[in-house]
Specification:
Blueprint (H helix, E strand, L loop, with lengths): L4 H19 L5 H35 L13 H58 L4 H28 L9 E4 H11 L1 H7 L1 E7 L4 E5 L1 H17 L8 E10 L2 E7 L7 H4 L9 H6 L7 H12 L2 E7 L3 E12 L5
Parallel strand pairs: 2-4
Antiparallel strand pairs: 1-3, 3-7, 4-5, 5-7, 6-7
Length: 334
């Protein structure tokens, strides 16, 4: 009745005016009452049809809450538009709910696997301490082993922190032009001890030291740090130290950074899955410190930054990782 209040007022007002007009020409009150009753009954019949239509439409809308598709019925254009809008909103929220559930399941999987990975260094530390209690004279070697396991724990903690920060990437994203060579040199220098310990050394080639790229300095450093750490870890040095090649080159409107080691390489069957979370492949079975998180985080950082990350490898020949950036040349650099 509220929806049809205006219609009801116009309807009865018009018929009252007609009745007043007819009163001057119709002398019998019975005929006037008959005319008014016809108006009233027609209105009641019309409103009954509208009520049936309303109940039917409301029932179909209520079925949406049960994930039941609306059947094709003779709804009015206004009702069809309202139902279609509700249907779109309903499906939109369903998609968002499924996405949130998928993210929650993925996060739960990451946390479970991460906790499992943390157990290994802790177990090793416990064994070292037990051995030291049996042989107190070997404290120097015990401390060295504990420090190695500590570094593994710290590395895994940093990886998981990066993973959780990716969920709020836009809050911590600040793209700016940076000198890629300077950023790379700073990162290489910070890993000097790792190079010495693993018997590898860096070789840098750069076409133009003025080349700058558009990226987020913090996230780009996190990505490169993981890639360089992998190159050092899997270099598989022999009697002689092996190089890790860094090459920066311009390709049209892009700058390509290549990081190539001469290590153990990756099996062809594993190469297509290296960016999947917690996938370690054959190398993970021989290198127990592998977590399978690093390259996944790198691929997500590259995707969010708009960089292209590719990897090629040959077994016992080495692995090459290439990152393509949007370039920005500085004409006056001193």
């Amino acid at each position: 009745m509220r929806d049809h209040l205006a219609f009801t007022l116009v309807y009865f007002l018009s018929h009252i005016l007609v009745s007043v007009y007819c009163n001057f020409f119709i002398s019998s009150n019975i005929q006037l009452m008959y005319l008014l009753s016809i108006y009233f009954y027609v209105f009641i019949i019309f409103m009954c049809f509208r009520l049936i239509k309303y109940i039917s439409t409301n029932r179909e809308i209520q079925r949406l809450s049960e994930n039941i598709e609306i059947e094709e019925k003779s709804f009015s254009c206004e009702q069809q538009a309202a139902i279609q809008l509700i249907h779109r909103i309903h499906h939109s929220y369903q998609d968002q709910i499924y996405e949130v559930k998928a993210q929650a399941d993925n996060t739960h999987k990451f946390i479970s696997q991460w906790i499992h990975n943390l157990k290994t260094p802790l177990s090793v530390i416990d064994l070292i301490l037990q051995n030291y209690k049996l042989n107190p004279t070997g404290y120097a070697l015990a401390l060295q082993h504990v420090e190695e396991e500590k570094d593994k724990l710290l590395s895994m903690l940093n990886q998981m922190l990066k993973f959780f920060r990716l969920e709020h990437f836009t809050r911590d994203y600040n793209p700016e032009p940076i000198n890629l060579l300077e950023s790379l040199r700073s990162l290489i220098n910070s890993k000097r001890n790792q190079y010495i310990y693993n018997h590898v050394y860096p070789v840098i080639e750069c076409e133009d030291e003025r080349i700058t790229v558009m990226t987020d300095s913090k996230w780009n450093t996190a990505m490169l740090d993981q890639i360089i750490s992998n190159a050092i870890k899997y270099s598989n040095p022999g009697e002689e130290a092996k190089p890790i090649h860094f090459r920066i080159g311009q390709r049209g409107d892009q700058v390509v950074l290549s990081i190539k080691d001469e290590g153990i390489g990756i099996e062809p069957v594993d190469l297509q899955r290296v960016f999947q979370p917690f996938f370690t492949g054959k190398n993970g079975r021989t290198h127990h410190q592998a977590t399978g998180i690093g390259l996944y985080v790198c691929s997500e950082i590259a995707r969010k930054l708009g960089h292209r990350l590719t990897i090629t490898s040959e077994v016992n020949q080495g692995t090459e990782v290439q990152i393509s950036y949007l370039s920005k040349m500085k004409e006056n650099v001193r």
